[in-house]
Amino acid sequence: MEISETLAAGRAAQELRLRRGEFELATQLGHVRTVGGALSGRRRVARGEVERLRRAAGFPDALRERVRTVGTAEGADLMDISPGRFTRLARAGYLVPVRFYLNRYRAVVWLYLAEELRAFASGEPGLLTGRLPRTPTGGSGTTAEGTEEKAGTGEDCRPRNWRGRRIGLLLHESDDRWERAAIVGSVLDPLQLAELVPDPYERASLNRLRPDLAPGRPGSEAGREAVQRLLTADDPDEISWHRSSLTALLADARRDRQAPRPNDTIPEPVGAPEPAPPLESASTPELAPPQPARTSVAAREAEPVPHSGRGRPLLTRLRIRRGRDREGAAVSRGGGADR
User: Fold this and answer.
1) Is 0.85 topped by the overall pTM?
2) pLDDT tens digit string along 19-52?
3) What's the distance, Cα to Cα, between the start and end of the chain in Å?
4) What is the DSSP string of 229-274?
5) Which of 45, 116, 231, 311 is most buried, with most CB under 10 Å away?
6) Helix intervals (H) in the chain
């Protein structure tokens, strides 16, 4: 599709009368179809898609209601249950959050789709009153110990369920095999990733394509640490599932293409540099051979000495004196032998 036939995210949100957060969630949930790379951050919306949504019945209120999120108190009011029961259902995995944020006390605030809460209340009326069943009937991340036992032990399925949902939405948007592997690997800690992907170039490619699971990180160090804990898989079953998924996705990605690598070609051996042309000398008829870059002591002693213009050069006088000393020594040795 030509770029001229598509709209940037900001312009599309404006024409659909959605706030930025609402538009992002609408694209993640598939209510607004986009084009472009899943992880590029620059997805666009076709003009025809915008016109289709604008012609839909109840626009724009119906579209905004489909992406409306609520917290615990408002969600409990929608389902006509107490906030305590709402929290226990969410912790046990019956209610899956779609977003979260940290409040000013760095506490995690989970958000849920209002549309899903109403559907759950109408479909599971037995879970809204009375004693909760020992064996959960819905929600991922639950086990046979029962909802009440899970709540009593402090086990919380909300982070795991949110991670699974977020990864599923990102995988639905991407067709690139390396991107899909990076999405699954983004919830594994670095040690797990290094164990599964020993090739440093492949790990670098996955890190480059790593998605931002939770945009808008907090500014404080404590807040970033709290968010990072929510982004990393910590349940053994969850870790095992993502490890298996990443292994399969990497096999597909490697068959598709290799991860980018630096140029491995070995350059041709470079020959010795050509000798520099000899310096011209007006005082000597013959040209001296070129000297190497690093000369020996003997070669340095043979280098010409600057002439001051008065008498013989110093090196010449030293050579004459050294020759006379050798001759005198030879004469002395010869005279001693005669005596």
Assistant:
1) no
2) 999 999 999 899 999 887 544 557 789 999 999 9
3) 115
4) HHHS--SHHHHHHHHHHHHHHHHHHHHH-PPP----PPPPPPPPPP
5) 45
6) 9-15, 20-28, 47-55, 61-66, 72-79, 83-92, 114-123, 147-153, 158-173, 177-185, 190-196, 200-208, 221-231, 236-256, 297-301, 314-338
Distance CA 102, CA 216 (A): 10
| Calpha distance 64→53 (Å, rounded) | 11
Q: 37 near 178, Cβ under 8 Å?
A: no
Band (pLDDT 50/70/90 cuts) for residue 18 is very high
Report d(CA 33, CA 41) in Å as an integer. Answer: 15
- Assign 300 to helix, strand or coil: helix
Evaluate if residue 117 carries a pLDDT over 50.
yes
Q: Is residue 185 a contact partner of residue 231, using CB atoms and an 8 Å limit?
A: no
Q: What pLDDT does 327 receive?
A: 57
Give 195's pLDDT tier (boundaries 50, 70, 90). very high
